[in-house]
Amino acid sequence: MHMLETQRQIAPSSTANFQVGSLIGGRPWIGENGFKMIARHCLGFMVAMGLLLLQACGSASTETDATSSGPKGLDQTDPAQVVATIFEVASGRSAPQVLAQLCDPLAQNDNDTRRICDNATGFDPEGEFGMFFKTGKLNGPPQIEGDVALVPFLFGPTGDEAENMELVRRDGKWYLSQF
Predict the structure, then answer these.
(1) Cα dihedral sign for 174, 175, 178, 179?
(2) Cα dihedral 25→30→35→37 (10° resolution)
(3) How far is 165 from 51, CA to CA, in rounded Å?
(4) In this structure, are residues 133 and 157 in contact, taking their beta carbons and an 8 Å threshold?
(5) How far apart, in whole angstroms, are the C-alpha atoms of residue 33 and residue 159?
(6) d(CA 38, CA 33)
(7) 3-state SS string over 110-122?
(8) Is there a contact between 143 and 150 (Cβ–Cβ < 8 Å)?
(9) In this structure, how many other beta carbons lie within 10 angstroms of the beta carbon of residue 175?
(10) Of 120, 96, 113, whose CA–CA distance to 174 is shortest?
(11) Closest Cα to residue 133, out of 165, 171, 169, 170?
(12) Are strands 148-155 and 137-138 parallel, antiparallel or unpaired?
């Protein structure tokens, strides 16, 4: 039997009523508009899956705070909060990865502040950083002049060494500059 004869036995000669596929429950699996119907259902399924994926990603730990574009809880609109974040990390109240976002993005900060930011990876709570900053606390309001702020704080093994942290403002966010 030739291929043409086989097709005639399977498919009717009129293409107006041509049905692709077989009957399931007395209804054609794919009819004239079957491909459109499947495409519509697939599109609906893909949209639903996309929304579920977005919802799952939205509940991840990288949620943003309304005041900054960093992780939730990091407020870089206030220089005092940036310095307080150092103490929170050193005392174990915040994740050390946040420190990487505190250094000047133009890399114009000094070596001391760079060493603070380096604790974002390989943080040792018993190391020098933890020992000097876990007892740290703010020691007065920040003094802001233009895009530079000085934040007085206390730190050290006993928490009584006075120091000033200098921060620089870039695109509305405060970053560590020097101390």
Answers:
(1) positive
(2) -20
(3) 44
(4) no
(5) 76
(6) 9
(7) CHHHHHHHHCCCC
(8) yes
(9) 22
(10) 113
(11) 165
(12) antiparallel
Bridge partner residues of 137 (DSSP)? 154
Give CA angle at 16 (15, 17), nearest 5°.
90
Cβ-based burial of 121 (10 A; exposed 0-12, middle 13-18, buried ≥19): exposed
Token representation of residue 16? 């107006």
CA 68 to chain CA mean position, Å? 12
**pTM score:** 0.59
Q: Which residue carries 């399924």 as its tokens?
A: 45
Sign of CA dihedral 64, 65, 71, 76: positive
β-pair type (143-145, 161-170): unpaired
pLDDT, one tens digit per residue, over 16-69 is: 454 455 555 555 555 556 556 665 655 566 655 655 555 554 433 333 333 333
Backbone angles phi, psi at 75, to 5 degrees: -110, 100
What letter represents residue 67's amino acid? T
